[in-house]
Amino acid sequence: VSAQVWVTDMAEFAEMNEVWDAWVSPQHPPVRAAVQAVLARPEWKVEMMVIAALPES
Hints:
Blueprint: E1 2-7, H1 13-23, E2 31-36, E3 46-51
Parallel strand pairs: 1-2
Antiparallel strand pairs: 1-3
Protein backbone atom coordinates (compact mmCIF):
# COMPACT_ATOMS: atom_id res chain seq x y z
CA VAL A 1 0.00 0.00 0.00
CA SER A 2 1.28 3.44 -0.86
CA ALA A 3 0.16 7.02 -1.38
CA GLN A 4 1.46 10.05 -3.17
CA VAL A 5 0.20 13.39 -1.92
CA TRP A 6 0.51 16.71 -3.73
CA VAL A 7 -0.27 19.89 -1.78
CA THR A 8 -0.40 23.43 -3.15
CA ASP A 9 1.25 24.94 -0.07
CA MET A 10 3.56 23.12 2.34
CA ALA A 11 2.51 25.66 5.00
CA GLU A 12 -0.74 23.64 5.13
CA PHE A 13 1.05 20.28 5.46
CA ALA A 14 0.35 19.92 9.19
CA GLU A 15 -3.38 20.46 8.62
CA MET A 16 -3.40 17.89 5.79
CA ASN A 17 -1.46 15.49 8.01
CA GLU A 18 -4.12 15.71 10.76
CA VAL A 19 -6.83 14.69 8.27
CA TRP A 20 -4.57 11.96 6.89
CA ASP A 21 -3.88 10.52 10.37
CA ALA A 22 -7.63 10.40 11.11
CA TRP A 23 -8.24 8.57 7.81
CA VAL A 24 -5.55 5.85 7.80
CA SER A 25 -5.20 2.88 10.12
CA PRO A 26 -2.55 3.72 12.74
CA GLN A 27 -1.54 0.05 12.83
CA HIS A 28 -1.02 -0.16 9.03
CA PRO A 29 -0.35 3.26 7.52
CA PRO A 30 0.66 3.22 3.86
CA VAL A 31 4.06 4.38 2.74
CA ARG A 32 3.63 8.01 1.73
CA ALA A 33 5.41 10.70 -0.22
CA ALA A 34 4.25 14.33 -0.15
CA VAL A 35 5.39 17.24 -2.29
CA GLN A 36 4.33 20.78 -3.09
CA ALA A 37 2.92 21.22 -6.60
CA VAL A 38 0.69 23.36 -8.79
CA LEU A 39 -2.45 21.26 -9.29
CA ALA A 40 -4.64 20.96 -12.37
CA ARG A 41 -7.44 23.09 -10.91
CA PRO A 42 -6.77 26.23 -8.88
CA GLU A 43 -9.49 25.42 -6.32
CA TRP A 44 -7.81 22.14 -5.38
CA LYS A 45 -5.51 22.20 -2.34
CA VAL A 46 -4.61 18.49 -2.18
CA GLU A 47 -4.46 15.66 -4.68
CA MET A 48 -3.71 12.04 -3.79
CA MET A 49 -2.96 8.83 -5.60
CA VAL A 50 -3.42 5.75 -3.41
CA ILE A 51 -2.65 2.11 -4.11
CA ALA A 52 -4.52 -0.10 -1.66
CA ALA A 53 -5.15 -3.79 -0.99
CA LEU A 54 -7.98 -5.63 0.69
CA PRO A 55 -7.05 -7.45 3.90
CA GLU A 56 -6.75 -11.22 3.68
CA SER A 57 -9.81 -13.11 4.95
